[in-house]
């Protein structure tokens, strides 16, 4: 009897292995694509990082003069190999959207106050590089180099007729989503350049009302997919929570996905979902770690044909082409 039970268990294990064996799955056959987070920008120490940390005051010693979320940064990112650029937006008091990361202007610029409580005209007077320092305030290497460079979303779309962009909503304001959707509806020529949206659920849901089928992701949706797939993915079926979605998966946790890498990617592709492979999440880090160095890039499966998220497109773009890292466009 025990031998029959043992044989039965082995058969079950073999069946599970066969269903989830990546070696038996065919590669998607597409090249990996790059999402450049904030464009080419200055990275910083993530040690002790919180949502209130002014990251401009902890940058590493500058190797270039590009400033995040600006037109020159985006141009250099596409030149370095970006397929999609992630950018951050805030509504302004005079009916525009400004491309800027922080909730307030105080950290990075010579302005002050909550970003969405300022007008575009005021923001256009500011120096986008004012607050950056790598030595605790001894020097400010970008000061004076970003005056008037914080763009509106309209300027970005007009500057890159062939670019694709992932929009990050910085609040959970439903009106923000409605205003963004209205802008996109008013400019149908921009629709194909809008790769997707992410952030808080509120504005995303408002945007989807006007733009159904748009790629999106937010934490509740990602958690729902992860939970459902962890419980049922061993059957090789894709749960509803993971269908027609954009899935952001940390490379540190990817091996936990049933069928990773080939079988998992094949299932999600067949279910209409895109995969974004993120960097390795550290304990307590509220940011968005990326695949930012050759060592982490080497952990991306050769067969992977989805998207990788990076903070260092100037390194990762050339590396994917087998080229040496360069500062795309050089120093400004």
Summarize the entry for a quick read.
Helices cover 30% and strands 13% of the residues. It has 332 residues and is α/β, with parallel strands linked by helices. The protein has one domain: Phosphatidylinositol (PI) phosphodiesterase (TIM Barrel).
Structure description:
The chain is an alpha/beta fold and 332 residues long. It has one domain (28-320): Phosphatidylinositol (PI) phosphodiesterase (TIM Barrel), CATH 3.20.20. Helix content is 30%, strand content 13%. The protein is built from 10 helices and 9 strands. It has helices at 2-20, 71-80, 120-123, 153-159, 174-186, 201-210, 219-232, 262-270, 294-297, 313-320, and strands at 33-37, 84-91, 97-99, 165-169, 194-198, 215-217, 246-250, 274-278, 307-310. Strands 1, 2, 3, 4, 5, 6, 7, 8 and 9 form a 9-stranded mixed β-sheet that branches. Helix 6 (201-210) links the parallel strand 5 and strand 6 (215-217). The chain is globular, with a radius of gyration of 22 Å. 37% of the residues are buried. Residues 6-17 and 328-332 have low confidence and may be disordered.
CATH class annotation? Alpha Beta
Radius of gyration: 22 Å
**Count of separate structural domains:** 1
CATH topology name: TIM Barrel
End-to-end gap? 76 Å
Which residues form runs of ≥5 with pLDDT under 50? 6-17, 328-332
Give, in order, the helices and strands: HEHEEHHEHEHEHEHEHEH
Q: What spatial form do the alpha-carbon principal axes imply?
A: globular
Q: Indicate the structural class.
A: alpha/beta
Oligomer: single chain
Helix content: 25-40%
Tell me the CATH superfamily.
Phosphatidylinositol (PI) phosphodiesterase
Strand elements, count: 9
CATH-scheme architecture: Alpha-Beta Barrel
Biggest sheet overview: 9 strands, mixed
Q: Tally the helices: what do you get?
A: 10
Q: Taking all residues together, what is the mean pLDDT?
A: 90
Beta-strand content bin:
5-15%
